[in-house]
Structure formats: C-alpha cells, structure tokens
Specification:
Blueprint: H1 6-16, H2 19-38, H3 43-52, H4 61-70, H5 77-81, H6 86-97, H7 104-111, H8 122-133, H9 145-152, H10 156-173, H11 180-196
Helix pairs in contact: 2-3, 2-8, 3-7, 3-8, 6-7, 7-8, 8-10, 9-10, 10-11
Amino acid sequence: METFDFAAAMEKLKAVLKPERYEHSLGVMETAGDMAARFGMDVGQARVAGILHDCAKNIAQEEAYQLCDKYGVVLDEVSRQSYGLVHQYLGAALARAEYGIEDEEILSAIRCHTTGKANMGPLDKVLYLADFTEPNRDKEPFTGLAELRALCKTDLDAAMRYALEISIKSIADRGRMMHMDTVYAWNWILGKNDKNT
C-alpha cells in the first residue's frame, strides 16, 4: 500500500466524519497495524483498512441509500432494517470509488467489519478485532474488553470467537435482528476451532 496517500485520506475523513468517529478511525488504524505486525501480516494494508473502515458511517440515511443505488450496493432485509449495518457495505464501495482502493482484501475487511462472515481471512479478522478493541473503547468499556485484547495478542481465531460471543449476546440482549453473516461467522469459527482441537 505504498501508493496510498494517508494524509489526503485523513483530511477527507476529517471533513466527513464526526470528531469522535474520526478519532475512532485513527485508533482502529493504529490497532490494526500493530496486530498485523504481531502476526506477520502487511502492516500498510491493515492501516489502510483501519483508517477507511468507517468512511460511510456518518452519512445521513437517505443519502446513504442513494449512494448504495449509485454504486450498486444491494442491501438485504436485515441491513435495511438495521441501519447501523449499511456503512460496512457502502464503506467498501466508497473506499473503491472515492479513495482508490482496489485491494480486494481491504474491501472485504471493510465489508464485514461489523457483522463478520464465514471464511474470514486474516485481514478480515484483524479489522473486526481492531474495531472492537481500539484504545477509544476505554471511554465506554464493555465486559470482556481486557480479555479480548489479551486474546488479540496471541490467537486471532480465539479472539474472533470471543468477540462474536460478546457481539451476539449484545444483539440478543437488546432484542435486535441478527444478521445471518454474524450467524455464519459464529458457526464457521466454532467449526474452525473444533478442527484445531
């Protein structure tokens, strides 16, 4: 990712994101980069995914749906009813169209950073976990944050299992609809862990 202009992207993001969302994006960028370095992955790739992952987060709902139509983003019924999920799909489209990202691993990671999915690659996992554990989460810590951060330093699959467990419990406790990609991610990580035992 030597050609990616971080400074230009940051200026653009600062203009379109709320200040706390921009700070969160910086935190995810740093956390994803650190995690990638720890596990021998492409640090630049992880940092790009981190800084761009929420690029569509603060777009008003009506405009977001218009942009989905413009860029051919097809939303399923759960995503249409749970607006908080739309930004991951639209974000991947904007990362390509407005930030010049052609790297399919980065686009995949952005596209599943909220729901997860089956067969997540290393960058998918790193971005999902960095979003969960970046330093700004300390402002409103959730139960299990310290344990999840510890797992992120040793075992990405174990960390994913724990993160999904936290996420699924939170969705169920709030009486929200569960996206099937989250269910698929859970079943996949359970099966993956079973094969490793």
